[in-house]
C-alpha cells in the first residue's frame, strides 16, 4: 500500500472518533503539531487518543471529504473537510472544520503530523 492509499484508508475509517481504530494507524512515537483556533497544540500518542475519545463522546458519526491529496516519498499532504453527526441530532450532518495536513509515514503508521484547521 502506498503512503497516499494509507492516508485515504485512514480518513475513510472511523478512526477520528474511535480510539481503538486510531491505534491501528498510529506509530508509538507519533507527534502531531496542530495550528488550531486555540493556537499551537502538540499531541503525542496518548494525546491523539484522548482527542479521539473526546470526539466520540460528542459525535456518533464522522466523515471526511478529501479535496486534495499529494504524495511525495513518505509524506502525504491532504486537504479535507470534516463532517460530523451529533448525538443530539444524528440525522443532520454538520461541517466541523476544514483541515490541511502533512503526514509522514514510518513503518506503515502515522509518524509525524503537521496540520492547520479552520472552523466552519
Q: How would you characterize this protein structure?
A:
The protein contains three helices and six strands. By secondary structure, it is an alpha+beta fold. The protein has a six-stranded mixed β-sheet with strand order 2-1-6-5-4-3. The longest helix has 14 residues, at 45-58. The model has no long low-confidence stretch (mean pLDDT 96). This is Nuclear transport factor 2 family protein.
Helix/strand order: HHEEHEEEE
Q: How many DSSP H or I helices? A: 3
Oligomer: single chain
The profile of the biggest β sheet is:
6 strands, mixed
- Beta percentage is over 45%
Protein name: Nuclear transport factor 2 family protein
Organism: Flavobacterium shii
Keywords:
six-stranded mixed β-sheet, 120 residues, alpha+beta, single chain, 6 strands, 3 helices
Question: What is the topology?
Answer:
Layout: H1 3-12, H2 19-25, E1 26-36, E2 39-43, H3 45-58, E3 59-72, E4 75-86, E5 93-106, E6 109-119
Parallel strand pairs: 1-6
Antiparallel strand pairs: 1-2, 3-4, 4-5, 5-6
Quick recap:
The chain has three helices and six strands; from the N terminus they run H-H-E-E-H-E-E-E-E. It has helices at 3-12, 19-25, 45-58, and strands spanning 26-36, 39-43, 59-72, 75-86, 93-106, 109-119.
Amino acid at each position: 500500500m502506498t503512503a497516499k492509499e494509507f492516508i485515504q484508508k485512514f480518513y475513510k475509517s472511523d478512526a477520528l472518533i474511535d480510539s481503538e481504530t486510531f491505534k491501528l494507524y498510529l506509530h508509538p512515537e507519533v507527534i502531531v503539531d496542530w495550528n488550531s483556533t486555540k493556537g499551537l497544540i502538540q499531541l503525542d500518542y496518548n494525546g491523539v487518543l484522548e482527542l479521539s475519545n473526546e470526539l466520540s463522546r460528542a459525535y456518533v458519526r464522522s466523515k471526511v471529504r478529501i479535496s486534495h491529496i499529494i504524495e511525495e516519498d513518505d509524506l502525504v499532504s491532504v486537504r479535507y473537510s470534516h463532517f460530523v453527526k451529533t448525538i443530539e441530532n444524528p440525522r443532520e450532518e454538520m461541517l466541523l472544520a476544514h483541515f490541511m495536513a502533512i503526514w509522514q509515514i514510518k513503518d506503515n503508521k502515522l509518524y509525524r503530523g503537521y496540520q492547520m484547521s479552520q472552523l466552519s
